[in-house]
Amino acid sequence: MLLLLLAACVGTSTQAPPAEPVTAIVGATLIDGTGEPPLRDAVVLVEAGHIRAAGARATTAVPEGAEIVDASGKTLIPGLIDLHSHYMTASGPEL
């Protein structure tokens, strides 16, 4: 019985799960929100829902097998979040 348990443990794979696919957005003008001038012909690499790299196409390598999104003629900007809200409270003589 012990040999069967040991054999089962040896056969267990410890391989890492497959890597998330990378999406490469290429050719856009990138406005990064830092105050730097817009970067034309940029590459933005997205992996597992997170930006992993951003830079000029000439200096930012696109991994082999990445899904390529041609964004030529388009502009990329940081996500915009609407922080405007109203806090409603009671008013009148009961305050």
Brief rundown of the structure:
With 95 residues, the chain is mostly beta strands.
Which secondary structure elements does this structure contain, and how are they paired or packed?
Layout: H1 2-10, E1 22-30, E2 39-47, E3 50-56, E4 67-70, E5 75-76
Parallel strand pairs: 1-4, 1-5
Antiparallel strand pairs: 1-2, 2-3
Key terms for this structure?
Urease, subunit C, domain 1, mainly beta, 33% strand, 5 strands, 95 residues
What percent of residues are in strands? Answer: 25-35%
> How many DSSP-defined strands?
5
Total helices: the number is: 1
Mind telling me the C-alpha Rg?
25 Å
Distance between the termini: 76 Å
Q: Which structural class fits the helix and strand makeup? A: mainly beta
CATH class of the domain at 19-76: Mainly Beta
What would the CATH topology of the domain at 19-76 be?
A: Urease, subunit C, domain 1
CATH homology-level superfamily of the domain at 19-76: Urease, subunit C, domain 1
The biggest sheet, with number of strands, parallel, antiparallel or mixed sense and barrel status, is: 5 strands, mixed
Poorly predicted residue ranges:
none
Query: What is the CATH-assigned architecture of the domain at 19-76?
Result: Roll
Gross morphology: elongated
Mean pLDDT: 83
Order of helices and strands: HEEEEE
Share of residues in helices: under 10%
